Amino acid sequence: MAKIKYDGVIEAVHYEPTGNIKWARAYIRHGSVFTDRVLLDREKLISDLRDGKRFYIGTRVESMGGVFQVTEPLRFLEDGNKTVISTTDKITDQDHLINVPVV
Fold first, then answer.
1. Of the candidates 4, 103, 101, which has an alpha carbon nearest to the alpha carbon of residue 57?
2. Could you read off the pLDDT of 62-98 as tens digits, one per residue?
3. 53 CB contacts (<8 Å, ≥6 apart)?
4. Within a 10 A sphere around the Cβ of 101, how many other Cβ atoms?
5. What is the DSSP letter of 3?
6. Domain boundaries, the chain
7. pLDDT tens digits, residue range 22-72?
């Protein structure tokens, strides 16, 4: 089995009216297994990304436990006072995740 190269998978997000992520529905890797769905608030997600953890956008493959179909990596971008979570390399006024279901 191939080694998993990410620490978490973001399945869906909920945005605040300002356009920033309020919380994300995710699976977190612990060794070789993943948690059930958990909710991560924006501060926890930023903290994990700053600590070097790698998150991808994706979905769990049905009936396959810890197997995921992942697409884009999450990026944490900082520019002065502005912090953005994005799937692109561009800093915008708000968090920007492409192809992620909004809850």
1. 101
2. 888 788 999 999 999 988 888 999 999 888 889 989 8
3. 7, 8
4. 13
5. P
6. 8-86
7. 999 999 999 888 999 999 999 999 999 999 999 999 999 988 878 899 999
| DSSP codes of every residue in 24-90 | EEEEEEETTEE-S-EEEEHHHHHHHHHTT--EEEEEEPTT-TT-EEEEEE-EEEEETTEEEEESSS-
C-alpha–C-alpha distance, residues 35 and 22, integer Å: 20
Which two structure tokens, joined as six digits, stand for 78? Answer: 């900082």
Nearest Cα residue to 21 out of 79, 84, 89 = 84
Nearest to 15 by CA among 86, 102, 77: 102
Q: Is the pTM of this model over 0.70?
A: yes
**Considering just the CA atoms, what is the radius of gyration of the chain in Å?**
13
**Residue corresponding to tokens 């995921």:** 68
